[in-house]
């Protein structure tokens, strides 16, 4: 039986200094068909926090006209602390037909060289649990799943995600895997962590991010050119029943739209066979 193909896409994040339309053009031109939204581009929000129906329709039309299907977006500021901005994010996901809202737990540091005090830190984790437990029914009613990804702190590793998601106890709160973050922030073999922690059955989306050099080394090359074993990662996820989207989130390159185009095309050429895509791939000249 042939392996089921996984939706392959990219986040607009690498193009955050460009208008959204240019980001969508680059992603579609590199061969991808699904997209994750970064909510600020060229210094401005892509849509107000409380948009009109016309503004939401215009955003959806812009994405569709690029030939892309939106599947997730980054939670906006305050959404993981307060219900009002979280409801706004869930409403936007539902209006755009996006089944996933991507987020992370609180950061454990006041600044890079100073951890928060233990009582403050424990309090923030407890607040996150209360917030997610209250938010889960809101997400479920809208047909949206909040997916939490590794980013230090309460969601640092696979085991942390299993613990946190289990405490919330709702199918509307699940995981987004980010192998590059596990390697960079925690210094772990991301594929071992994925397999041994038992988080794989909870994963509903993947941020594709390669990394090279281990703990604290800020090298995030084009996927396939670093140390993440993407083939093993996808084998583990498929065995756990994963069918969700794979979205390239970060790839270090020159900060020009054309360089990002070319890097995304290289990533597509590497990832498409692993995802099971049979499409024609990139169409722009940099491919």
Quick recap:
It contains nine helices and twelve strands. With 287 residues, the chain is α/β, with parallel strands linked by helices.
Layout: helices, strands, pairs:
Elements (H helix, E strand, L loop, with lengths): L7 E4 L8 H10 L4 E4 L2 E2 L2 E2 L7 H13 L3 E6 L8 H14 L3 E4 L5 E3 L2 E2 L2 H25 L2 E4 L9 H11 L4 E5 L1 H8 L3 H8 L5 E6 L21 H10 L6 E3 L8 H19 L12
Parallel strand pairs: 1-2, 1-12, 2-5, 5-6, 6-9, 9-10, 10-11, 11-12
Antiparallel strand pairs: 3-4, 7-8
Helix pairs in contact: 1-9, 3-4, 6-7, 7-8
What do the pLDDT scores average to?
94
Total count of strands: 12
User: Can you name the CATH architecture?
Assistant: Alpha-Beta Barrel
Q: Which word captures the global form?
A: globular
Largest sheet: 8 strands, parallel, barrel
Name the strands of the widest sheet in spatial order: 1-2-5-6-9-10-11-12
| Residues in helices, as a percent range | 40-55%
- Cα-atom Rg, whole angstroms? 18 Å
Give the CATH class. Alpha Beta
Could you name the ranges where pLDDT drops below 50 across 5 or more consecutive residues?
279-287
Describe the protein.
The chain is an alpha/beta fold and 287 residues long. It has a single domain (8-275), classed as Divalent-metal-dependent TIM barrel enzymes (TIM Barrel, Alpha-Beta Barrel), CATH 3.20.20.150. Helices cover 41% and strands 16% of the residues. It has nine helices and twelve strands. The chain has helices spanning 20-29, 53-65, 83-96, 118-142, 158-168, 179-186, 190-197, 230-239, 257-275, and strands at 8-11, 34-37, 40-41, 44-45, 69-74, 100-103, 109-111, 114-115, 145-148, 173-177, 203-208, 246-248. The protein has an eight-stranded parallel β-barrel, surrounded by six helices. Strands 3-4 form a two-stranded antiparallel sheet. Strands 7-8 form a two-stranded antiparallel sheet. Residues 279-287 have low confidence and may be disordered.
């Amino acid at each position: 039986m042939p392996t089921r193909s996984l939706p392959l896409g990219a986040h607009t994040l690498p193009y955050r200094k460009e208008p959204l339309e240019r980001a969508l053009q680059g992603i579609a031109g590199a061969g991808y068909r699904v997209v994750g939204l970064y909510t600020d581009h060229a210094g401005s929000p892509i849509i107000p926090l409380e948009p009109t129906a016309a503004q939401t329709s215009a955003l959806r039309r812009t994405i569709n006209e690029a030939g892309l299907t939106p599947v997730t977006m980054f939670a906006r500021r305050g959404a993981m602390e307060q219900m009002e901005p979280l409801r706004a994010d869930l409403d936007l996901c539902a209006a755009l037909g996006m089944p996933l809202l991507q987020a992370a737990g609180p950061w454990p540091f006041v600044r890079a060289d100073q951890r928060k005090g233990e009582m403050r830190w424990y309090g923030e984790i407890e607040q996150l649990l209360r917030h997610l437990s209250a938010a889960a029914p809101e997400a479920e009613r809208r047909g949206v799943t909040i997916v939490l990804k590794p980013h230090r702190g309460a969601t640092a590793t696979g085991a942390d995600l299993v613990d946190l998601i289990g405490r919330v106890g709702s199918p509307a709160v699940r995981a987004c895997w980010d192998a590059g973050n596990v390697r960079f922030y925690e210094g772990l073999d991301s594929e071992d962590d994925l397999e041994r922690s038992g988080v794989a059955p909870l994963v509903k989306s993947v941020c594709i991010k390669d990394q090279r050099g281990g703990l604290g080394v800020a090298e995030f090359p084009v996927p396939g050119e670093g140390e993440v074993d993407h083939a093993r990662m996808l084998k583990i996820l498929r065995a756990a029943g994963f069918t969700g989207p794979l979205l390239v989130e970060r790839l270090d390159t020159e900060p020009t739209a054309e360089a990002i185009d070319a890097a995304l095309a290289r990533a597509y050429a590497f990832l498409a066979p692993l995802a099971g895509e049979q499409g024609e791939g990139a169409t722009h000249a940099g491919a």
